[in-house]
Amino acid sequence: MTILALDGVHKSHGRAAGAVQVLRDVSLDIRQGEVCAIVGSSGSGKSTLLSLMGLLDRPDSGRLRFEGEEVGTASADRLAALRNRRIGFVFQAFHLLPRLTALENVALPFLYRGVPPRLGRDRAASMLERVGLGDRLHHRPEEMSGGQRQRVAVARAVVGDPALLLADEPTGNLDSATARQIIDLFFALNADLGVTVALVTHDPAIAARCGRRLVMRDGRLDSAAPGAVA
Amino acid sequence: MRRAGHVKPARPLDDGESGGRRWRALAADALRNLGAMRQRSLLALLGIAIGTAAVVALISIGENAREHSMRQFLAMGADILTVQKDFSLSGRPAVLTRADVDRLRALPGVEEVAPLAMLGVEIRQGRTRLPSAVAGVTPEFFALVQAKAAQGRTLTEGDRAATVVVLGAGLARRLAEDGQPPVPGSLLRMGGYNHTVVGVLAGSTPNPVLPLDVDSTAFVPLSGARRVSANSDITNLVVRKMPGATDQAVRQSLSDHFSGGPHPRPVMVQSARQLIIAMTDQARVHTLLLAAIGGVSLIVGGVGVMNVMLMGVVERRREIGLRMALGARPIDVCAMFLAEALALSLSGGVAGVLLGLAAAAVYAWNAGWAFAPSVPSLPLGLGMSSGVGLFFGLYPAVQASRLEPVAALRGE
Question: In what way does this protein cross or attach to the membrane (chain B) (predicted)?
Fold first, then answer.
């Protein structure tokens, strides 16, 4: 089953004359349950592609469908609701709120879902335990190592039980050993929860582990690259 | 694995959205955010607090001042009117006579009339010389203005030809020789005659409708006023109206008495009620003016709130972007910043109300008034501060909610 479908998507940054074409005629399907790496050189449009996939941005033209729903023209509120319930994000810079504890950070998505705070914290606690941080619930980000912070971020991304987990260079700020643990975590979550994973990476070793690689070149999806391996 | 099984069943709750709970959680979130930028919040809060304090203090002070002057009137009776010669008109000023007193007494609605001759002379007691107001009065004057003797007695019919004097409490204090104020039996020299003090009045608050301050006046019998000063014509008539009579009607019949007949005499009739109304109007204008000044300081505080919030929006772009990525709708972001602005200004408002009441209490204590907290100033102060917070918080909040998630996440 296809979770996400892009069809002839164009995207440019900037306005009018100075606009830079970032994505040109990109079409792809993300299927449920796969782990997919997006690779390519800097400025090839990987991150822009990921933000379109995460419904953080809209395509200039072309169709974008999420779980069969046409979302290219959906309202901001609808996109927010889909991001809240169906999509999880992990960023290179973790993006944890420094004044909140690990537990509060992980429970944050529930704030926008109207889940009772107690219940949200309970689910956050069990998810932190799941990523191996059961003893760090009440630590603030500054009291944790990079790897621990990224695990908190991963817990936050999947605590709401999303269909799609998007990661933008999740290991970019980590040493290789920690990076491997985080990638292991992604695969484990993929296996346990069935969450579909799409991650942008520079690391060929990580890309090699993924079942599918999408290579971006100059704003286009490189069709010469091996498409579906899985 | 086992954990996965644990998380999955909670899924149905995803749709358990409830409005009240959501807003309460958002409010708690706002307070936490404010706490994080403690110092800057405190400064903006200070601005709001000062503005609110100004509004509350000024309104309370205005209200206490008004109550104080009202109480002054009521102490002396609001049923008093005075008739005095109108010097503003051309021609010979009117002459008030004892015959007028008797005729006015017969007018409907008039309870009592007392003639009054205002003189100014120098009083001497031993080495003390004091220029003072002296009033020639008849015995009924004291009852009419509710002046009572603290020592000795007031004047009686038997004093008609005697060289006696009754002193107001304040005047007696000022005449003190070697720390000893004059007592009944003391002698005072006025206009070349020794006058025996027969009484000292109890202290009283001045009644603005009377041409004299009872406290600082020496009273001599009207028939003996000629001894004190060459010009001892009756200058005023003090009138007490009957409790049921309307102010308007009595004023009218007094004026009619003097303007009627073959020789109309121009006089001015003033009533306590008239003065009270004028004073109340004046006090209202003052209060409004003072409140407007407070309002201006409140607006300055509001600009401070806007400043803090705008800086917050700029500094917290990544956070806004992250919250949007996690599912915050534009209205959630807007509500978060509005709630923060509201919490900020409302806590400033509470502090300001307390501060303002304290300031008003100190002012009232200093002025010797009875302090009563102005009830409408409390909701007004809180309402104004939260209104200012919402108004000045709206722009930053809307700015925040309009950020594009991608740009905000990059911190642009």
Answer: Multi-pass membrane protein
